[in-house]
């Protein structure tokens, strides 16, 4: 039984910036953090690590960045993310996330198979993942996942998703994502990865980062199904 562990943003859906807008609203009066948000590349980061990095910009700039990051209190991160989820619901109600080409049909095909478990492996908080995927009409097929609410480092999220997959009977797994962070986290957790070039990273760049499988996109669901259920090399 193979567990297919999908990233969310840029792999399954496109958002039009809803998550960033929601986070910007959640930051409120944190002016330095808001400025940093405008310049940050969020691809593949976890929600908690994003909030930590942004809040660290509000600390004494004379301190080394690692010290500022460590000094950010968990309660401050949780407060920002709680407001973020509220704003995200509003964003998704006004501008729902959209499935990327072929994704709806691909998930239907995979969900119908007896040899596949569909799971998520995302830096989004679980509630955030549900909000986004429900707005896109994609929440239903996923039986389990590893989320940014489970852990802050992305490799730990992969490990948690894999453990949950094994508890459901999986004997092997494949992590699917659109960024180098997805691939590196999968390998750190001892799993193979499929890179899909639907985000900022090209096929060549994903291959350079060691993805065992590569897809340009999922626009051909039959071809994508064969790739994701075929040999892991």
Which structural category fits the helices and strands? alpha/beta
Flag low-confidence runs. Answer: none
Rg over alpha carbons: 17 Å
> Strand percentage, roughly?
5-15%
Give me the count of strands: 8
Order of helices and strands: EEHHHHHEHEHEHEHEHEH
| C-alpha geometry | globular
Number of helices: 11
Output mean pLDDT: 90
Largest sheet: 6 strands, parallel
Spatial strand order of the main sheet: 5-4-1-6-7-8
Structural account:
This protein has eleven helices and eight strands. Strands 5-4-1-6-7-8 form a six-stranded parallel sheet, sandwiched between helices. It has 233 residues and is of the alpha/beta class. Helix 1 packs across helix 5 (74-94), helix 2 packs across helix 3 (47-56) and helix 5 runs parallel beside helix 7. The chain has helices spanning 18-27, 31-39, 47-56, 65-71, 74-94, 103-111, 126-136, 154-167, 180-188, 203-208, 221-229, and strands spanning 2-6, 13-14, 98-99, 116-121, 144-146, 172-177, 193-196, 213-215.
């Amino acid at each position: 039984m193979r567990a297919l562990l999908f990233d969310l943003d840029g792999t399954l859906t496109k958002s039009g910036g809803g998550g960033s807008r929601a986070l910007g609203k959640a930051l409120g009066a944190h002016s330095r953090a808001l400025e940093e948000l405008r310049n940050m590349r969020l691809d593949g980061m976890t929600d908690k690590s994003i909030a930590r990095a942004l809040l660290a910009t509000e600390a004494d700039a004379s301190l080394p960045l690692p010290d500022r990051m460590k000094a950010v209190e968990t309660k401050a991160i949780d407060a920002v993310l709680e407001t973020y989820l509220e704003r995200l619901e509003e964003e998704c109600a006004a501008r729902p996330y959209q499935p990327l080409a072929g994704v709806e049909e691909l998930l239907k095909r995979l969900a119908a198979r007896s040899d596949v478990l569909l799971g998520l492996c995302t830096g989004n908080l679980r509630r955030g993942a549900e909000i986004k995927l429900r707005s896109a009409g994609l929440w239903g097929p996923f039986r389990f996942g590893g989320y940014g609410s489970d852990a802050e480092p992305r490799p730990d999220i992969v490990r948690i998703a894999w453990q949950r997959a094994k508890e459901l009977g999986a004997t092997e797994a494949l992590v699917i994502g659109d960024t180098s962070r997805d691939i590196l986290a999968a390998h750190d957790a001892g799993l193979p990865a499929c890179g899909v070039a639907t985000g900022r990273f090209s096929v060549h760049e994903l291959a350079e980062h060691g993805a065992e499988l590569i897809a340009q996109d999922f626009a051909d669901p039959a071809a994508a199904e064969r790739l994701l259920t075929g040999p892991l090399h």
